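Catalogue entry: protein
Contents: sequence, fold tokens
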Amino acid sequence: MNTVRSLTFLFTFWSLTASVIVVGATALLCVLAWRRTGYRRDFGCLELLRLSIVVLTVLLFNQPEWIEEFRPKEKPTIAVLTDASKSMSTQDVAENGSSVRSTRKQSIAPLNDAKFWAPLEGKHDVVIQAFSGGKEATGSDLHAPLAQAQQQFRNLKAIVFASDGDWNEGKPPVEAATALRLKGIPVYVVPAGSAVRLPDLELLSFDAPTFGLVGKSVRIPFTIESTLPREITLPVTLKASDGETVTKEVRVAAMGRTSDWLMWKPKELSDYTLSLEFPKQPDELLAENNKLTAPIAIRQEKLRVLIVESIPRWEYRYLRNALSRDPGVNLSCLLYHPGLSKSGSGNKDYIKQFPGGLDELGKYDVVFLGDVGVESGQLTAEDCRLLKGLVEHQASGLVFMPGWQGKQLSLLETELTELYPVLLDAAQPGGWGSRSPCQFELTETGRRSLLTRLADTQEDNLDVWENLPGFQWCAAVTRAKAGSEVLAVHQDMSNEHGRMPLLAARTFGAGKVLYMGTDGAWRWRKGVEDKYHYRFWGQVVRWMAYQRNMAKGETMRLYYSPEQPQIRQTIELKANVMERSGEPLSAGDVLARIVAPSGKVQSVRFRSTGEEWGEFTAQFTPAENGKHELALACQQTGGSLNAAIFVQGAEVEQIGRAARPEVLAEIARVTHGQVIEPGRLEQVLQSLADLPEQPPAMRRLQLWSHPVTMALLVTLLGLFWIARKVVGLI
């Protein structure tokens, strides 16, 4: 670095003329005053001091500045930054208007060749560097390479930036462009790729559940996105790892997204890998995104279900029969029958009293509360508190099934009142009855819900609900609570809040709650026997117990939310840890070791949130899609649990997306650079050669306003005043 120092004055003709006149006049007056004193030495020094003060003032009036120029010894640097992200492999660059297309990376390939920059080597240092590439890169960050260029390259003169503009990580690149503009560094951008997406069909999502039950059909939704200009019908095939296939013809809308689903019925206990795919269409240019895979574990589950009822009404009897005959359900019944000396019965399904303590109640996955309340010989306030904790902290399900006695109104005075999806009408404890049958009417939410799916297609399902035998009694409800999902309403009865809810669900804590406002579901057996009645209650039990049974061992249970996590979405991990004796662990060290599909390992520490219930929570945000292996361990109990979380969603960086040249154009505009098309790369050399030499870095010291200069002037004025007093002029 060469340094040149100089002193300059910012004077004008008039300021210089005035300065000469003032200094000349002052010098003349000083000489005349000195002569009147007989040329005494002390007076001569005084007049010389006066003249010095005037000269210093005149110099400051012309704004003197001390300037240091720093001239670099090395040649200026041209930084060539090329995008190496996955999206640059998109083959959408037309060559000279022909139908042959090359990849975006190929269109900017000359910029990576050192021979291309040979004409600039004499006066510049050209440094070629790729960004957003390699195995560790998960997306495109356009801000980082621009921001780091200022510190990474010495004497940076300009930047050549070649990319498709598709940024999905880091800060907005315009922020780095603003900083480059302040430094006077232009950016010459080379946009690669087409701003219009290629004709393509993409399988966006494949939402297979984590586990299923042997012999039970699994509904698997999927979504296809089309950028084709026409509607097409194509076969979508589901293949299981055992060789079984299921095919469905799907009509895909033009230039939009189409959602549909497939039904698959596993026949054996095993860990399956499911793949969903459809064939490449004639006018589709990209076939790599036509297939997705997902794992699913098929188990032989025994869900623990408890039914608590008072009078054995018809609804209770047929519900008990349906669940007791379900091979995947282990049923317990508690009957508070009026007039009996004690609860229970001789049947093996019955228990004699409400489960006492957390170790007994915590075994149940779903609890049905019929026409029971808080009174002598039935539930207690402590029972209600335990039920609330079972749902909130251990992800169990709770079903409210009120009856004509209105006993559930007493539950509103307990902690269970927070769990109700609806507001009960206390003015009508006995509910509403009618001579003629009334009908359910599904809401929009109910039409999409798995709980109300009584037929394989949506049209058939609506037809089934419209023709179900009606009910002749329902509980009185004011309205649904905020946050609840109303699945079905009364076809005729309404109030100022709208139709009266009959079937409503909500999430409370880690568990789920369902409200069934009638006792006439048993009538659905008319003419079809158990077809709809058994299917409905079987779906309810499995839906409510799904999260609780994601992964469990002898002393540990793990569940997470959302149930079908997406890439880069925060997953709420929850674990219930029990002592060897079965009691919940109040406090302890619970750790999870998570291995991503790429092999990256991450440790997550859980914190205790419900000491009484042994609940521990943690958060995890996956950066990759695919199967994540999770090993859960507790130091105090020595327990461990192995589980898997399958993260869905497409990678952040994808092939086939449209380029974003507007992002690059903004970078060029902000930095006063240029946009140069890939077909005219020679223009880059000419533009860089025409750049003027960079001015040297300068540091200016303004002497006319510097505090030291002002202090010197004040000091001289003080000395002049003192000198006048010494010589006797004052």
